[in-house]
Amino acid sequence: MTEPKSPEDSRVVESADEARRSPRSSSEGHDEIATRAGGSVASAPAGTLALVLTGNHKGTSKVVGGRLTIGKAADNDLVLSDDTVSRHHCEIVRAPDGLHVRDLDSTNGTKIDGTRIREAMVQTGSVLKVGEVELQFKPTVARVEVLPSEKSNFGPAIGQSFAMRTIFGVLERIAPTDATVLLEGETGTGKDVLARAIWSASQRANKPFLVVDCGAVTYSLIESELFGHERGAFTGAVSARQGAFELAEGGTVFLDEIGELPVDVQPKLLRVLETREFRRVGGNKTLQSNVRVIAATKRDLQREVAAGKFREDLYFRLAVVPVTVPPLRARRDDIPALVQHMLKASGGAGLTVPPETMQALAAHDWPGNIRELRNILERSIYMAQATGSTEINMVTLPSAQSTDITAFHFEPEKSYRETRAKYDGEFERRYVKWLLGRHNGNISAAAREAKMDRKHLHDMAKKHGLRGHEAEES
Predict the structure, then answer these.
(1) PANTHER family annotated for this entry (predicted)?
(2) Which one, 6, 26, 52, 141, has the greatest CB density within 10 A?
């Protein structure tokens, strides 16, 4: 784009200047500019963002409304304090046919994609140079705000914390649809409960709900478990068998621990999700599939994709609605309600929980999450019933800081150094196991938290036979 040289171009600039100084409404000014500057330029998107790429205010952004002024003076909409920017450098006017940029007689000029202009159209993606400061125009993304649910439960799933009510708000809207849902989170967080709650609230609630645990099925049989097989397809296949996608016709298939699905089976699952067609193992007939898929995993699938252990296209096909279920330690406000619910479900409705016991439950980190809480409560209920108590007074909480009584059994025939080495090793093993567990085996993340050398942690994990993702790869 170049500066206007013809009389007609000059009149356009002068008219635009008059429109700017006129007391008419901004919408009238926009109409005037739109009439004169007709062309084939696509209209500006519903929202456009001016992002500062260089200079003192790098990273600053401003939404372009009706009119955006740029300059060094404080009365500008976007203030740039750089030396090459004039006090009132330029303005951007929004019109139905796009964005109009006008230089306000600046000292160092205004450029679009390297061309100096007095007035011109600018499209999203273009780079505007104000003096020596670069700005880029980007479309803003329209986002749908999903408010937290007003309920403290979604089916059998319980949670009054903000994190859980936010999840419930999403699932209440998604459950009646056929959207594929991916539930991510640590083991024991209740992903299976949420999956059943989604099915119960869906249009497929009167149809089958089949669970396939991808981590529990033998590697050689997982494909048959999903898609079935024909007689003689492999050794031991003495008769034809239907798979989950066939048995659950019209219903829902819950793929638990989807992160454990073998890489060579992943393309076949992707085909079912995309085409809704599959074949039994050893079969030639193409079968139609009408099921909804809900998947769950304790792995970080994006990390698995980056490591080449999980197909990227399958991840995006599964994560149509990704939901990350928080660990129990991140939603401690839910513990009292969970405790009362579990007491009733486990036959301990008549028992009470003293304040000190509830405080101990709320203070624990719960590495096993809700599953660990349920196990401890069930054990406590049995103990209370066996002793005739009406209260749950004794709850044994496993802790990284607690040590078995037998761990400090001293032997007189061993020296101080030998005794200390024995318990130092046990402490080291327990600590490394706990630390890696907090980070799903990620050596680097665990080392950063413990403020120790990554290589040293790797060697410690290897010495004690503990599994870490990076340790396995090394």
Answers:
(1) PTS-DEPENDENT DIHYDROXYACETONE KINASE OPERON REGULATORY PROTEIN-RELATED, TRANSCRIPTIONAL REGULATORY PROTEIN
(2) 52
